[in-house]
Each structure stands twice: as C-alpha cells, then as structure tokens.
Design brief:
Elements: E1 3-8, E2 11-16, H1 26-41, E3 47-52, H2 77-85, E4 91-95, E5 98-100, H3 102-109, E6 112-115, E7 120-122, H4 136-144, H5 146-155, E8 159-160, H6 161-165, E9 175-176, H7 183-193, H8 214-228, H9 233-246, H10 250-265, H11 268-283, E10 301-304, H12 308-319, E11 324-327, H13 331-350, H14 356-364, E12 366-369, E13 380-383, H15 389-402, E14 408-411, H16 418-423, E15 431-436, E16 445-449, H17 456-468, E17 472-476, H18 482-501, H19 505-515, H20 521-528, H21 530-543, H22 552-558, E18 571-572, E19 581-582, H23 584-596, H24 606-626, H25 633-643, H26 653-660, H27 662-673, H28 687-695
Parallel strand pairs: 2-3, 3-4, 4-6, 5-7, 6-9, 10-11, 10-13, 11-12, 13-14, 14-15, 16-17
Antiparallel strand pairs: 1-2, 7-8, 15-16, 18-19
Residues 304-310, 327-329, 333, 384-387, 391, 394-395, 412-414, 435-438 line the site of 1,4-dihydronicotinamide adenine dinucleotide (NAI).
Keywords: Fatty acid metabolism, Isomerase, Lipid degradation, Lipid metabolism, Lyase, Multifunctional enzyme, NAD, Oxidoreductase, Peroxisome
Pathway: Lipid metabolism; fatty acid beta-oxidation
Domain 3-hydroxyacyl-CoA dehydrogenase C-terminal: 481-573, 609-697
Length: 699
C-alpha cells in the first residue's frame, strides 16, 4: 500500500505515500478506499483527514501507469472521489507543497480543505493535451468562480495557495494553516471542529454560473482560440467549464467532461505531447551508464572563444550561478564578446525579464584571460573556437597541458570528429562533445557527443550539468553532423530538388510552416546564413562526389545572397527587419537554372512537399538509429522538437511517422525513388524501417 492509515484519538488520517509526489497510482487509490472503509467501520472515528507524506499532497495521476491497464483499474479516481463524497463522516483534505491534477480533484471531492501556505495548486492536464477528467472542470469553477477556474484549467499554470485563499468569496480552502509545519495539527483540530456538522458540504452542490453567461463564454472562446493554435485541448477545457456553468445537474456536466476527456485522450495531439513528456525524461538516461554513477564535481567552468557560441555558452553557466573564465586570442575579441553578453542581459533587464542586481551578480561571476594558465583549476572547459581541426588541435593540446587531472574537456564542434579531437590529448576519456545550438543561451537542446573513449562518469556528469543549466540533453554517437544536422542535410537536399522541379522558396516554406514548422528551410537558411551550408557542400563535393545536390543554393551564394545578415538571401529583407520579401532575381535564377538542365517545371502539391521534407528526416533517422548513433527513437524526436522547430503537436519526426503508419511512409519513399530528378538511392527505405514495416511494429 502506498497510503497509510492511522488513528489519532477520534480522527483517522490517511497519508498518501508514493514518492516522489504521491501520484495516485492503483496501490495508492486502493489505500485511500481501504482507509475510508476502515474509518467508517470504526465507531470511535468521528472525522477523516487525507494528507500527503514528503514533498506533496499529491501531484496527480501516477505517470508510470500511463497507457497501462492500471490507470483505469478499480478503484479508479472517479470511484475514489465518489467514495470520499459518499463517506458518512467528514473528510478533510490537508494540502501542502504540491496539489495538482488528480490530487486537486481528489481534494475537491473532500468535504473540507485546509491548505498550508506556499502550496502550488494546479490542473495541468492541458499541458499533456488533456483536460482534468475526474471532475476538475466541474468542481473548480464552483469554488473559485468560472473565470479563475477557466484561467487555471486552460493555462495549466500553478497558483499559490495563499493567493487563492486571499480572494474574497473563494470556497476552495476552508482554512489556510499558519505554516506548513502546523498543517497536521491544525487539520486534526479542524476535523474535530466539524465532526458533528451535518449535512456534509459537497462542492458538487454549490451553484456555478458566470454573471455574463453566454457573452462571457463567447469572449473567452475567441481568446482561447487565438492561443490554442494546433491543439484542441484548450477549447475542450472551455467546453467542459461551460458545461459546468450551463447544465442544471452536476452529473450532466460531469458526463460532458468525460466525453471530452475521451476525445482528447485519443487525439494525435495529446498522444504527441504525452510521447514528448516521456521522451524528454528518457533522454537523460544512457543505457550503459547506471543512474547512481558518481559524478565529477563541477564548480568552475572555462570557455575558449568569445564568439557567437562562446558568449552564449558562458551565459548558461553564469545564469546557473557558476563562475566562468573565457579565454580568447586577443583582448579586442574578449571586449567584443563581453559586450555582446552585457547587451544581451541589458535587453532582458529592459524587458523586465531580469532584475538589475541579478544581471550584476551574473557578470561578477565572469572573468576573462588570454593565458591558458588561468584555466588550470577549471572543472569543465568548453571549446568554441573556429570550426577547423587544426585550430582545435592547438587548443586541445594546450588544454591538455594545463588542465588539472579529472577536468572535463568539451568541444562545441558542429561537424568535426570528436574522437580525433580527443586524440589530441593524452586523456581521451575526459573529452566529450557538447553541441549547443544558436543562440546558445536560449535554445534548449544540447547534443552530448560521446566519443569512443569518453568515460561513463564524464557522460553522467555532463548530463547532470545539462540539467543544471536547464538544457534538454540528448546523447549522440560520433558521426558527421551528429543526430540533428545529419538529418537536416537530407531535408535541405530535398528543398533543393523541389526548387529544381518547379517550386518557389515561398511555396516550400509555406507548405512546411502550415504543417507546423516554425520556419521553412529557405527562411531558416537566410536566418542561419546560406554560406554555412555552402561551406559544408563544398566539403561534401570532395568527400562524397556521388552525392546528388541541387545547384540552386550554390548559385544563390555565388550572388552573395548569404541571408538576413546581408539583407538578401532566398528572400529580401528591409534593413533591421526579418520579414521575408520574395525576390524576382531569385525566381529568375531558378527558372534559368531549370532551363539549363532542360527541366520543365511541374506543379507540386503541398502534400508532396511536406512528405518529401519530413520523410527525408525519417529515413535518415532510421539509419542513425540502426547505426547506434542515437540510443532510442524518442531521443531523435527530442532533438527535433527542442533544436529544429519541429511542430510539437506532431511529437517529432518518428512519432509522426508512427502516426502516419510506417507502411505508408515506406510506400511514399518508394514512390519518391521513382522520380528521376530526386535521389533514388537515398529513398530506399532504411533497413530498420523495412524491418519494422515487415513486423508491423513502430519506431
Ligand atoms: P565565431 O567565429 O563566432 O567565434 C569563434 C571565436 O573563437 C572567435 O571569437 C575567435 O577569436 C576565437 N578563437 C579562434 N581561435 C582561437 C584560439 N586558438 N584560441 C582562443 N580563441 C580562439 O564562431 P562560432 O559561430 O561561435 O562557432 C564556434 C564553434 O561552435 C565552432 O566549432 C562551430 O562549428 C560551433 N557551432 C556553431 C554554431 C553556430 O550556429 N554558429 C552552432 C553550434 C556549434
């Protein structure tokens, strides 16, 4: 049992005890039901208190039961709440620290609620594309009012107990305890004070309506529609709350809530969000690195290079309160780098996102140097110098000479071989790739590149460091481009072929943005700088002469159209503006190029554009998975969601492929392979994909 029963004189206390947050799993639900029965059967017991052990009243559903039979097994949460409501003796919820989701729904079923100050109260189901399905949408509006309840349910954001308690007329809390420490005693005393009060009050019996009625819901619907974007859940939350306010009988509203909940449960959007919820947590686990691996202590950090990446990387550590020393070749480079960082922080201060004193505290943790000797006591050094193996060699040899034993030596390289970089040192076990994404202080993704010799405790340590600086870390093996960029290269190649065959950049961008990408490939190229891809292709032409590319991007670069930084790329840009303006010169360039190849442009559907771009990611991902570059399919989805603007409601490229059906995905690839202007060899479904199709399995 993960709920304990104890009798304190005339009050029974049921304590949820299912760490970490007293999730309402089957064993806990059984424990509550059994406790209620026992208390009812005991004539000496006059009242019952339900509370939580440790760090929560309850965080809600037990996520480990998601998708299993246990989640719905009796007693399910509905039955437990009914048992509480129907209990012949008063049941008091004693709430502290965390009271969320099913935990709050359980509390709302109790006859009384007493809360400790500082408790986070929320119905966060919307964040998983769901709605509170155990009466939350029906009971919360009855105790905090329709508007406040709707805000909480649609946003899923927590509200502090003392704030709720301060609202006149609220009925969520019957009492606010003086402190978390006094909650247990105050709950017992409160339970005794109401032991004989009859009839027992029930939230379901309270009235529920908004003074403006329909007009309010019309207004709210417009607001929610605007923010819901690709997700159905926020509007369904609103429907459910509206049902609470318009149905005369509580149980009719509850029925509506149930129907809406089931609709959402089966929606691809909720499946995508639930997939990502688990995928993000699973990403930090490395199969052969046990959870308890001892970590190296990281107290001081060094960064080599104060350019675009170095400054952003340093900011992550300063934000987390770790001192950082930046090393550069010249004082001017240091000054430039530090100025960019200061401006960045100042902008945050201006926008009210950062307090002036916090900014000062962070900058005070920063030191700079031109001398490697100053890095000797750093525990972790991250190199972010020019992307050139010769330069990296110089840097790593010097680091090897000065860094203390056991220090972790990391490279932010985006394309170079981490094993070669490790071999520049006499301590390859301490070398790892930490591939940040630009802007490094903003982007959540961190690819952790594991070299052949990288020690397990180094892996465990950098994963913990990633968490500390609030990154989502995914482990990648060593290969050109690692997980993310290796896949994006195929996506970019398809973009080029689509132009050759008749698309305009704006048509391609529009189609994939409608699918949900934050930005299409050509707008993305203009933002990142088209010269970067050009440099990579030039290398490819030598390394892989058989690889087929469209020449359009090279022609664009030959015209100096490098992107936003020069005001022109695939599109034109007004000075200081980021709005893409289609350009006639580019369209003419594309037409001439097609003519020179003897190609007649054809009309390409948005569906074909999206499939070719997305399935190119999927096929490369299947190769990556099979080669063991990625540990699991969900890691690849995490990379694409947090690093490449893949639409969240689709759950990442491999989740999307599963949704489409792998048979259909492979069939489309075989069709694309028939197109003489495309790359037939690339479109052979990867062996792993073929196997999964044959076995009727998913990624
Ligand atoms: P950058 O050119 O903006 O900055 C490089 C900095 O390193 C310059 O300030 C330069 O003075 C300094 N530097 C060069 N050689 C040095 C040496 N021997 N010792 C000390 N400092 C030295 O380059 P950026 O864009 O910051 O790239 C740095 C690294 O990060 C590269 O490996 C790049 O591939 C990688 N990267 C870049 C991304 C981007 O979007 N820019 C994204 C992810 C990784």
């Amino acid at each position: 049992m993960t709920a304990h029963y104890q009798v304190h004189a005339d009050v029974a206390v049921i304590t949820l005890d299912n760490p970490p947050v007293n999730g309402l799993g089957l064993a806990t639900r059984r424990g509550i039901a059994a406790g209620l029965e026992q208390a009812q059967a005991d004539a000496a017991v006059k009242a019952i208190v339900i509370t939580g052990a440790g760090k929560a009243f309850s965080g809600g559903a037990d996520i480990t039961e998601f998708g299993t039979d246990k989640a719905l097994a009796e007693p399910n949460l509905h039955s437990v709440i009914s048992a509480v409501e129907n209990c012949s003796k008063p049941v008091v919820a004693a709430i502290h620290t965390v009271c969320m989701g099913g935990g709050l729904e359980l509390a709302l079923g109790c006859h009384y609620r007493i809360a400790a100050p500082g408790c986070s109260v929320a119905l966060p189901e919307v964040k998983l594309g769901l709605l509170p399905g155990a009466g939350g949408t029906q009971r919360l509006p009855r105790v905090v009012g329709v508007e406040a309840a709707l805000n909480m349910i649609v946003s899923g954001e927590p509200v502090k107990s003392e704030l709720i308690a301060s609202v006149p007329g609220q009925k969520l809390f019957d009492k606010l305890a003086a402190s978390p420490e006094s909650l247990a005693d105050e709950a017992l005393a409160f339970a005794r004070s109401v032991a004989d009060v009859r009839p027992l009050p029930l939230v379901r019996n309270l009235p529920c309506k908004h003074p403006q009625g329909d007009a309010y819901f019309q207004f709210a619907r417009n607001m929610v529609k605007g923010m819901a974007k690709n997700f159905p859940a926020p509007l369904k939350c609103l429907d459910a709350v509206e049902a609470a306010a318009t149905h005369k009988k509580f149980d009719d509203g509850l029925k509506v809530e149930r129907e809406l909940f089931i609709q959402l449960m089966w929606s691809p959007e909720s499946r995508a969000l639930r997939h990502l919820f688990f995928a993000e947590r699973a990403a930090s686990k490395i199969p052969d690195v046990p959870a308890g691996t001892p970590l190296r202590e990281i107290k001081k950090v060094a960064v080599i290079g104060a350019g675009t990446m170095g400054g952003g990387i340093a900011m992550n550590f300063l934000n987390a309160g770790l001192p950082v020393t930046i090393l550069e070749m010249k004082q001017e480079a240091i000054n430039r780098g530090v100025e960019v960082m200061s401006r960045n922080y100042e902008a945050q201060v201006k926008k009210g996102k950062l307090k002036q004193e916090k900014y000062e505290q962070r900058m005070a943790l920063l030191s700079t140097t031109l001398d490697y000797a100053a890095l000797a006591d750093a525990d972790l050094v991250i190199e972010a110098v020019f992307e050139d193996l010769g330069v990296k060699e110089q840097v790593f040899k010097q680091l090897d000479a000065v860094m203390k034993p056991g220090a972790i030596l990391a490279s932010n390289t985006s394309t170079l071989d981490v094993n070669k970089i490790a071999a520049f040192t006499a301590r390859p076990q301490d070398v790892v790739g930490l591939h940040f994404f630009s802007p490094a202080n903003v982007m959540k993704l961190l690819e952790v590149v594991r070299g052949d010799k990288t020690a397990k405790d180094v892996m465990a340590t950098v994963m913990a460091v990633a968490k500390k600086i609030k990154k989502v870390a995914v482990v990648s093996g060593v290969c050109d481009g690692f997980i993310g960029n290796r896949m994006i290269e195929q996506y970019g190649r398809q973009g080029g072929f689509l132009l050759d065959e008749g698309c305009t950049p704006q048509q391609v961008d529009k189609a994939i943005e409608k699918f949900g990408f934050a930005m299409g490939p050509f707008r993305m190229g203009d933002l990142a700088g088209n010269d970067i891809g050009w440099a990579i292709r030039k290398r490819r032409y030598v390394e892989k002469p058989d690889m087929k590319y469209s020449k359009t991007a090279d022609l664009l670069c030959e015209k100096g159209r490098f992107g936003q930084k020069v005001g022109k790329g695939w599109y034109d840009y007004a000075p200081g503006k980021r709005t893409p303006i289609p350009n006639a010169e580019v369209e003419q360039m594309l037409e001439e190029h097609r003519k020179s190849l003897g190609l007649t442009p054809r009309k390409i559907s948005d569906e074909e554009i999206v499939q070719r771009l997305v399935f190119s990611l999927v096929n490369e991902a299947a190769h990556i998975l099979e080669e063991g570059i990625a540990n699991k399919a969900s890691d690849i989805d995490v990379v694409y969601i947090f690093g490449y603007g893949f639409p969240v409601h689709r759950g990442g490229p491999l989740n999307y492929a599963n949704e489409v059906g792998l048979f259909n995905v492979a069939a489309a690839m075989k069709r694309f392979a028939q197109n003489p202007l495309d790359d037939a060899a690339f479109w052979q479904p990867a062996p792993l994909l073929q196997r999964l199709v044959a076995e009727g399995k998913q990624f």
